[in-house]
Amino acid sequence: MPSPSPGSGLKRARSDTAGSGTTSPKRANSEMGQDIGDGGHATPDVGIDEYMRLQEANQEEDIGLASIPAMENGDHLTGAEQHTMVTNLCKMPLEKGATWYIISAKWIRRWEAATGVAPSKDYANITIASLGPVDNSGIVHLGSKRLLPDLELNIDYEIVPDAAWDKFVQWYGQPRITLPREVITYSNETRVEVYPPMFRVYPLLPSALARSHIEISSLETLSTLASRAATSIQLADPNYRVWNVPATTNVDNGIRPTDILRGSLLPIPSDSKTPISEFVKISDILIVETQYQAGVWTLEAETVAIARDPTSDDELGPDDAPEPGPLFGQGSDYFSKLQASQDANKPKAATTTSTMSTLKNTFTSTFRGKSPAPAVQRGTVGLQNLGNTCFMNSALQCLTHIPELEEYFLSGLYKRELNYDNPLGMQGQIANVFGALLHHLYPSPNTPIESATKSYGWGSSANSYAPREFKHTLGKFAPAFSGYQQHDTQEFLGFLLDGLHEDLNRVLKKPYVEKPEWPEEGGDEKVVAKETWEGYKKRNDSIIVDLFQGMYKSTLVCPECEKISITFDPFMYLTLPLPVTKTWRHIIHWVPWDTKKRTLAIEIEVPKDSSYGYLKKLFAKWFGVEADNLLAAEVWSHKFYKFYDDYMNLTELAEKDTLVVYELPVPVKSIAKPPPMNSSFTFGAKPKPPPKTDPNAPFLIPVFHISEAQRNAAFGVPFFVLLTPAEASSREEIYRAVVDRCERWTRNRNNLWKYRGPRVASTEDEDGEGELVEQIEPEAVHVDGAVTEIRPDVDEMKVEVVRDVEMEPVKDIVTKEEPPAGPVEENGRLASPAQPSDDEEFEVIGPQTELFELRLFNSVTTTGIETGFNLNASSTRWVDWNSREQAARSDPTLSDPESEDGSEVMVGKPSQPTPLLKPTDALVCQWSPPIQSHFFGNESSLFDEWEEFIHPDVQAVRDAQVKSRSGRRSIDIEDCLDEFTKEEQLGEDDLWYCPRCKKHQQATKKFELWSVPDILVVHLKRFSNARAMRDKIDALVEFPISGLDLNARVGERGESNECVYDLFAVDEHMGGLGGGHYRAYAKNLSDGEWYHFDDSYVTKSSAEDSINTNAYLLFYRRRSANSKVAIEKVRASVGSDQEPNSQKSIDMAEQPVVRAPDETDPPPFELSDLDTLVPPSAYETPDSHTGYNLPGPYRSNPGGSDDDPTFTTPSPVTTGSAGAEYDSIEEKDAEGVETLGGVTVEVSTTTTVDREAV
Q1: Which residue, among 939, 943, 862, has the nearest Cα to 635 in the 3D structure?
Q2: ∠ CA 350-356-359 to the nearest 5 degrees?
Q3: In terms of domains, do 621 and 666 share one?
Q4: Residue 837 half-sphere exposure, CB side, CA atoms within 13 Å?
Q5: Which of 672, 663, 664 is nearest to 725 (CA)?
Q6: Rounded (5°) CA angle 253-258-263
Q7: Which of 224, 702, 872, 875 is surrounded by the most beta carbons within 10 Å?
Q8: How far apart are CA 580 and CA 352, in angstroms?
Q9: What letter does residue 344 receive in the DSSP assignment?
C-alpha cells in the first residue's frame, strides 16, 4: 500500500514506496489524488494477457489478485498474501464519487509488522491473531469522528479504497471509528477529500436553539449545505435562510443582528445547485436566520449581503451575484421571491404584534446591518483569513504597498496592457482580480462610506476585506493553492509575480531568440550582458520586469584547461542562504573486513541532513577503503533492522539506534541479486522486462547467532560471509566461511580450527591487550597425523589430540599467516590496528566440527538481503538443506523453488555446481550451551568490545565550535551575501561539460549580482529541503532598515548611490513547517508610518520590530527610484494607442490553466554549509567537495548556455521568461509543465483571440 519515501520516515521506509504526487506535502484539506496508483509494487504472477482478460471480467481481479489463494473468503491467507492483496487494491485509480477510507498510520504500521512484510522495533511482538480491528482513535478528537487538524499523509494516516477496507473488516473485525471519504474533482484535479468542509452553525439570536457543527462533502450543493445547517440546530421552521459570516465575528455569546455589519454576509441559497467545491467561503461560520414574524425577515438581504465587485471584468465565481438588482437577479429564484415577500410584508412590521418581544422593541422594520466604523487610514485595510490563507495575505500586503503597483492598477493603466492571447498567461484574469483587490484595499477617499461599502464590499469590518474573488481565481489557475491547506508565501509570491507578468506582457508574439554564448577566446562582460538582457526583453516586457527583475552573473572555470564560461540570467527575487551550520552527532560502529583489525566505535559529527553516501565517503577517506564496498545497516535485537541506501537521510537516525558500517571485499552493487519476480503491472503502465542477473556474482549472506540455552534467542552481532557460486554449492565451504568470520568475535579464536603439528599458545590474548586469557594447550604430539580438536561434552569443553587417518598424507594444507604486530598505516591513512602474530607458525587443517548447527533461514517476504527480523525463536521455519541439495541436483539452473507461485526463473546454465544458497537467504548458527560459553562467555566474547575512535577532523570541528561560541556574533545580511557569492566546486554528480576539454569536469562556480531592480525582494532561505525532510533555521539575521549598499557587489555599476536600498516591507513566518503563521510589516506611504498586518488585524508598529528571527521575505526599494518614471513609461506606451481591437472568446470552464514559476527543489545540506567560524576544510574529501555532489548551499544551479547545459537559474524568474526566455514559443508550449517549489503543475489553455499586435 502507499508508503512514505525512504527519507520521510526512518522506520516506515521498509515498505514499498509509492510515487509522490504534485500536491503540497501538507495534505490538510484536500488530499491524495495521484499519490495512490503510483509506484511499482510487487504483484503476484499475472501475465499481461491474463490481466486484460481479468480487467474485462472483474474490476477487483484486474489488479492482479486472481492468483492469491482463498481470495473470496480471506481464509488461510498468510500475512504476506494479505499485504500483497491490499497493496494491489490501493493501486486502483481514483474515480469521482468513489469512497476511500482513512486509517491511522499507527495501525497500518502494526499491521505491516504483523504480516512480516515491514517489521518494526516498536511492534516486534504483534501478530495477525493479536492485532485486532482498525483503530482510528489516535487521529480523531476524543469522543467524535472529527479528524485532528494538520494530519499528514503517510505520517499520521493512510488511505485505502473501499475494497481494501472491506478486507480489513473481514480479517480483523468491525472498527469502532470509521472514516469514509469521497473522491472529488476540482480544477481538473482528482483527489480524496481528507478534510471535508466543516462549518460551525449558530442560530441568529434571540433563539432557544443550540449551536452545532456539520461536516459535509464538497460534492454536495449549496442547497444541501443550507438544509444540513438548519437540521443540525434542530430547526423545525421551514422558513429560514443561511448566511456565511466573516471569521472576525465574535461568537462567544452567540450572534445577534446588532453584530452584523452592512455588506458583510455571504448568502447560502437554498435552491442553488452550485457544488460546495466551487464556493469560496469567507469563514467556517454559518448563521441560520428565521422570520421574526410571518413573512418578515430579521435582516435586510440587500444591505447585509456582500455586493459584487464592479471593478472585475471576469465572472469571479458561480456563487457571486450579478448586479445591479437583487443578489441573484430578478425572476423566480430564491432571492427574487425573498425580495417580493419582504416588500409585501414591510408595512405590517410596525403594526403586527410580534411573537418575539425583543425584536418588537428593537426594530420597526428589517435590520439593515450596523454602519461600518469611520474609514481607517488609507493603506491599512486588513485581509481576512479564509482558512490557512495567511501565506497569501502577508505577501499581498507587501506587494500592495509598492506605489508603482498601486498607481498602475488603481488608475486603470493595467487594462491597456492586458495580454489576453498569451498562452503562458491567464487571459488577464490574475491581473484583473489583483486590480480589483487593490480597489478594495485603497478605496477612493472621495467615496462616501455607504457607497464604498456597497461597491467594494468591505468584509466583516471597516478595516478588513475578505479576498474571496482573488482566492477563487487563484485556485482556478493553480490547483496547488486551491483548498485551504498551508503553503509557502515565497512560492505564492513567485507564482503571482509570474502570472501578473504574463498577463501584462507587452510582447504579443514572442520571437525566437538565441542566448549569447561566452566567446572561446574571452569577451567583454558588458557586451554579453547587454545582449542577454536585450534578448530577454524581446520576449518579456511588463511592469513586473520593469520593477522586479535584475540579472545574475555566473562564472564557471574548468579545473583542467582553465576555460572560463560566463553567463547572465534574469532573476525575480534574490535567494540568500544563511551561513548557519546544524551538525548531527552519533556513534557509528565500524567493522572492517580484515578480522585482524579491531572493530571501532566512531564518534562522528556531520552536517544536518547528510546522507549515508556522505558517511561512506567519509569513512573511505579515513580508513583508506572504497566507499562502494561499504554497507550501512541498523542492528537491533541482535538482528538487522534495515539496510540503508546512499541517498537516505543519515541524520534521521534516532539517538539510541545502533548503526554498523560493514566493509566488504567487493562493491555492494556487484553481489548476487535475487531472481526477478514475475512481471507485475500498474494501471496505465506497460510490463517491464526482468533485469539481467550475473550467474557469477558472489553471494553476500548475513549470519546470525541463536542460543539453545536461551530457547533459541538471538545474541551477538550479525555479520556477513561472502561466497563465490562454487563455494555456495558446498555445505562444507559455507560452514568454513562462517567459522572464519567468527574469529573476530571471540578471544578463543584459535580453538575454532584444527591444526597439524605442534603449537604453543601465546601467553597474551589475541588482541594484544596484554591480558591473560583461558589457555587450552594441546598435548605435544610428534606425528604428522595428529590433529587438535575441540569436542563438546554435556557441561564442559574438552580439547583432545586425535589421529586423523584420513589426513595421511595431507594435501592442500592451508597455512594461516599472521600479519606483523603493531599499528598499520596505509598510504598515510590511519587504519585499524592489526592483531599481533603468534610466536610460531602452524598449519590449519580446517574448522572444528560440531561447533554449532548451521541452519538456513529465508523469510520469503524479503526482496533483498535478509534482515533476520522475522527470525522468531518459537515460529521460525527452517529451510531444509537436503531439499536444497536435491533441488540443485535435479535442476542445473538457478531457480527459486520456494517462491510463492512455484515458478522457476532461468538465469543461466553455469559450468560450476548449482549454489545451495539464494541471495535472500540467511545463515543461523545454533550454539549449544558449553560451546557458546567457551567462545562467547563473559571473558571470551568480543561482541561488546568496540574501541573508541575520534578522527582528528571531527575533533578540529568541535574545537572550532567551542571557540566560536565564546565569541559568537549574530548573522547579518552581508554574511548571507558573502555565502551566496563565494566560489564553490561542483559535485561529482553535477559535472559541467567543458567544450575545450570535450568532457565533463568538476568546475568551480561563482555567483555574482550583475544588475539589480528597483524593487529588490530578498528571500532568506530559512527552510531547507533535503529530499523528504524539511527544516527551518530560526537564526536572527540582522538587516538594515535604510542604506543597504550593494554598489560593491553589483557588476554593472552606475552612480555611487544607484544601488542603495531602503526597507519598506517584511513578510515573516512564525512557527515551524508542521504549523505556522505568516504576518507582514509594511510602511504606509500615506502617513509614513509602519504597520503590522496580521490578517484582519492591523496595528501600528515600527521598522525595528520587523528585525526578528521570523523575517522571511525582505522588500527593499532603490533609493534613487522614482515611482513616476515607471508610470510615465506606461502612459507613454499606451497614451497614443486606441483601445485594442480585441474580441475575446475564452472558455475557462473546460480547461485547466495553471502557471507556476520555474524553481527547482533546493539542494540538501552540503559539506560547504559550515559555520563561518568552523573551517570548511574539516569535512572536505580528496575526491569530492561534498557528500551530496550538489552545487551551493541552499541554492539552485546557475543558468547557463550550451556550454553548461546542466544549469538553471538560482532563483525563480518569470516562467516563460527566464525559465525559457531563449526557447521557441512552440517548444515552451509543447512542454506544458512548470514547477513551483516542488509542485508540478500543467499549463494548458484554450484561447480564441483576435487582437492586433502593437
Answers
A1: 943
A2: 55
A3: yes
A4: 10
A5: 672
A6: 115
A7: 702
A8: 74
A9: H
How far apart CA 40 and CA 59 sit, in angstroms, is: 19
CA atoms within 13 A on the CB side of 47: 3
| Positions in the chain whose pLDDT score sits under 70 | 1-75, 187, 308-375, 444-462, 675-692, 757-841, 861-862, 873-875, 891-912, 963-969, 1024-1031, 1053-1057, 1073-1075, 1135-1254
900 contacts 675 by C-beta, under 8 angstroms: no
**What pLDDT is attached to residue 377?**
80
The CA radius of gyration of the chain, in Å to the nearest whole number, is 37
Active-site amino acid positions: 390, 1077
Q: Are residues 406 and 521 in the same domain?
A: yes
**Number of neighbouring beta carbons within 10 Å of residue 98:** 15
Amino acid at 69: P
Question: Is residue 962 one of the residues assigned to a domain?
Answer: no
Residue with cell 520571437: 511
Same domain, 142 and 267: no
Asked if residue 737 and residue 858 are part of one domain, the reply reads yes
Report the CATH number at residue 122: 3.30.2230.10
Quick one: 550 and 468 in the same domain? yes
On whether residue 37 sits in a domain, the answer given is no
- In 3D, which of 569, 577, 551 has the Cα closest to residue 1012? 551
Boundaries of domain holding 221 = 198-298
251 and 146 housed in the same domain: no
Closest among 1016, 1037, 1032, 1044 to 1107, alpha carbons compared: 1037
Residue 1157 confidence (pLDDT): 37
- Dist. CA 1003–CA 984, nearest whole Å: 9
Distance, CA of 822 to CA of 838 (rounded, Å) = 13
Element (H, E) at 1133: helix 1123-1135
- E strand or H helix at 112, and its extent? helix 105-115
Measured distance between the N- and C-terminal CA atoms of the chain, rounded to whole angstroms = 56
Q: What is the pLDDT of residue 223?
A: 92
Which cell goes with 392? 497569501
H or E element that contains 978: helix 973-981
CATH no. for residue 285?
3.10.20.90
d(CA 538, CA 850): 84
Q: What distance in Å separates the CA atoms of residue 1154 and residue 1171, rounded to the nearest whole number?
A: 40
Q: Which three cell numbers stand for residue 1227?
A: 517548444
Q: What three-state secondary structure class fits 435?
A: helix
- Cα 1212 to its chain centre, rounded Å, is 20
DSSP 990: S
Select from 1134, 1161, 1181 the last residue of a domain. 1134
Question: If 0-12 CB within 10 Å is exposed, 13-18 middle and 19+ buried, where does residue 143 land?
Answer: exposed
Residues 283 and 395 in one domain: no
Same structural domain, 515 and 664 = no
Q: Measured between alpha carbons, how far is 578 from 588 in angstroms, rounded to an integer?
A: 29
Counting the structural domains of the chain, the total is 4
Instruction: Please report the pLDDT score of residue 388 as a whole number.
Output: 87
pLDDT score of 842: 72
- Burial 35-52, CB ≥16 within 10 A → b, else e: bbbbbebebbbbeeeebe
pLDDT for position 1056:
54
Asked if residue 1071 is part of any domain, the answer here is: yes
Distances in whole angstroms, Cα of residue 250 to Cα of each of 202, 253, 382, 528, 1013: 12, 8, 17, 61, 44
Per-residue burial over 484-501, b if 16 or more Cβ lie within 10 Å, else e, is bbbbbbbbbbbbbbbbbb
